Amino acid sequence: MPEAKSFPLPSDLKVVPGTEAAQASYPYYTQFVPEDDQKFWFYNSMHFPEPMHHFDMITAEAAYVALGAFNTRVHVLPTAKGIEHRVINGRVYIGGVAVTDPAEIGERVEQFQQRAFYYYEHWEKLYDQWKVKMKTLIADAQALPKPSLPDYEPIETTHTGKGVASNHALLDIYQKQVEGYHRMWHHHFEFLLLGYGAYMTFFDFCKKAFPEISDQAISRMVAGMEAEIFRPDEEVKRLARRAVELGVDRHFTDGMNIDQVLAELEAVGNAGKEWLGELETSRNPWFNVSSGDGFYHYHRSWNDDLSLPFAALPGYIDKIKSGANIERPTEQLISEREQLVADYRELLDTDEDRATYDQLIGLAHRVFPYVEGHKFYCEHWYTNLFFNKIREFGALLRDHGFWEREEDVFHLTQYEVESAIIDLMLSWGIGAPPRGPQHWPAIVAQRKAAIEEWGKHPTSPALGAVPDVIDDPAIVMLWGITRDNLDSWLSDGDEDSNELKGFAACSGVVEGTARIVKSVEEIGRLQQGDILVCQVTNPTWSPIFQKISAAVSDIGGSMSHMAIVAREYGLPAVVGTGKATQRIKDGQRIRVDGGRGVVTILEDEPVLEEV
């Protein structure tokens, strides 16, 4: 009997020699234990493609606390509970907790109908409330004072009988920051899984009613959305138009020095000043987006680092001046969407099926903008603000000798940061030196070296025995983890084939030069016409889509952010290939067939004729 194929077990993964102390410093509940060998795990390279700094693990913890609560206890999804997470060598592995007992599923269905259906019926009202909650949460975080310690307590503390000294404020501010971040993730998941659930219900109906229908045809039925996450790119286009209209476009060139350009515009007169005013209008709030996916402290916002939006300006300016269209093809997508919806409706035989179809597609259209729109407020605006607030503690502790750079704070876990703050509070109150300057520098250096070392070592895309069925809506739709996909990752013949298979995200056939981009810092390597090959991308990379001719990713399903963005921009794309960044060499010529979900490494094959 042939041996069943399996990924390595968690116990097979070894900590990289020399980094054992850094590994042990992650919280105990994120460490693999022997019982974990009985479960299936996959590497969450979509959200955590790089080794995790110790503080940044809060982005996994807070997210999975909230996701689990809403799946399991709030909306009560019938067949899926929460997501467990572990970290080894800085890599985050996750696994879904499935519900398999028919009696429990039946009980949960009843709960789900009472809870989720209320949200579906009152979606617009609840979503409007959600935006108010998020904007209030952002304002509260912005209002938190910068932590500081005076030499002496202000005399007002004594004369007003305040009765609380300044060192207490450090603990208060920090705990409010952490609490706010956890609260944000609860808001994040209030609607998200219901959005996926509505789409999955429509998806399943279509698969049963139209056995030949492709995943891409179904996803095109919800294309052409308006969501806040696309607005930052629209603002860059607006700034490009204004530069041309004001006659200051000559200042924007590839490789420009941004500080120099801003100084020149300030000096050239009214037109330059007017454009700078337009820039300020765009920046608040629309440049509060991270250049990454919002899960790492070093993925700074456009407001912190203008390089990504400014890198897009010359290309947009050239296209505007040549009369080319730089808009998203939204009208075309909506027209195609309506035609597809009508065409498939005609294939249904009964009034009952047509009524169900109308109800399901109507709900999908109502809820779907949230699936992308929430990212602007949550992963980007709030998360970037949160990390910048933690930087303020990094700077305060640096100034008191705890470490050399404000960024070093991110090498501590969230609990260690609180202990360092209390050390400083004690020191200030006692009038004696803190212990931190002797304790932390060596640990920071050790963890910094571990992060660097872990980045040199690839990790298995999954761990443990492949499950028979995967029906968690997030795992299928967002990560693209299906039984077929996992089987292809395990296939021995892959290495000999010049083809990689994935999800057909957006149709079109393109040949070109593959450009492997493994981090945000490498975006600048992209040349006009390149094919982007990456582990994962996100909507804030949209300005670079004008440069590339197609996109390929390792991870992602038909509803992953890359798939959605590719469709909204009409960019041929294949997602969820498993190992494109490992199999394809930088500079190799490849063919992307976004309709079939196939990427071909061409090597010596003849190229397509130029049209």
TrEMBL record:
<feature type="domain" description="PEP-utilising enzyme mobile">
    <location>
        <begin position="527"/>
        <end position="597"/>
    </location>
</feature>
<dbReference type="Pfam" id="PF00391">
    <property type="entry name" value="PEP-utilizers"/>
</dbReference>
<dbReference type="InterPro" id="IPR036637">
    <property type="entry name" value="Phosphohistidine_dom_sf"/>
</dbReference>
<dbReference type="InterPro" id="IPR051549">
    <property type="entry name" value="PEP_Utilizing_Enz"/>
</dbReference>
<dbReference type="InterPro" id="IPR008279">
    <property type="entry name" value="PEP-util_enz_mobile_dom"/>
</dbReference>
<protein>
    <submittedName>
        <fullName>PEP-utilizing protein mobile subunit</fullName>
    </submittedName>
</protein>
